[in-house]
Design goal:
single chain; alpha/beta; 8 helices
């Protein structure tokens, strides 16, 4: 989740200069969230690159005003539900999580014979964005949808899902998780490793347009062309930045 903090001195200033009451501060906060979601420039000292956005007199979302010297803060009409328009493949709030209908469509129908296929298709790679009940930052869902759109645009044979760590599908190839869940994720895939399947855990400190997304997509594309495993081809510039495998983590095949 993104937390928006409005400094007390600025709250008093907006009340004095623009007659914006304390009850309407949430409307300023919503506009700050909207600016962050749309990728507008935010000073480095006003965003911690993870989950905290600061609003004060030095930076705040500004309304279209005729007065360049005294621009008033922008106010969201509905601070609890609003939409933004960008050129990025961001989902709506209703699209962030898989719907029950999508899950039901994958279930086999009792008594229905499987359709014959002329050529057996290769198994789909399993890419999972993992979370727990206690650790589920909002941007994780946006990152999941970004990666899902990228994989679809690239035409890759991969299943991308958003799952709890205690409900992972079998044979996960890559597991993206928040940094705080790194050890829990490695423990969750340990059983798969013991069964002979190697799953790579990628802890993320941020979720929007992370460079690991493109690295994994390149590896998937390379393995699809060569017929080898996911880890057959490496992007040297990305691999050099990755930390060494933690103790107890299965090494990646070369």
């Amino acid at each position: 989740f993104l937390h928006v903090h409005i400094f007390e001195a600025f709250a008093r200033e907006v009340d004095t200069r623009w007659d914006i009451s304390e009850a309407d501060l949430i409307r300023i906060a919503a506009k700050g969230f909207e600016a962050w979601l749309m990728g507008e420039p935010i000073p480095d000292d006003h965003f911690n690159d993870r989950d905290m956005l600061f609003i004060d007199a030095a930076w705040y979302p500004r309304a279209a005003s005729l007065s360049a010297t005294n621009p008033s803060p922008a106010l969201a009409a509905n601070p609890y539900r609003f939409s933004v328009v960008t050129d990025e493949p961001y989902p709506t709030l209703d699209e962030m999580l898989p719907s029950p209908a999508d899950s039901a469509s994958l279930e086999p129908v009792e008594g229905r014979a499987p359709e014959p296929t002329a050529v057996e298709a290769p198994p789909l790679k399993q890419i999972v964005f993992g979370f727990t009940r206690d650790v589920f930052p909002g941007p994780l869902a946006i990152g999941y949808n970004q990666f899902k759109h990228k994989a679809a645009d690239a035409g890759l044979a991969a299943t991308v899902s958003l799952r709890a760590l205690d409900d992972l599908p079998p044979c996960v190839d890559v597991l993206f998780v928040p940094q705080a869940l790194a050890e829990a994720a490695r423990g969750a895939v340990l059983q798969q490793a013991e069964g002979g399947h190697s799953c790579r855990v990628e802890p993320l400190d941020t979720f929007l347009n992370h460079p690991y997304y493109n690295a994994v997509l390149e590896e998937l594309g390379s393995s699809a062309g060569s017929g080898s495993g996911l880890h057959a081809a490496k992007a040297p510039d990305i691999e050099a930045k990755r930390p060494a495998p933690a103790e107890g983590r299965a090494p990646e095949a070369k």
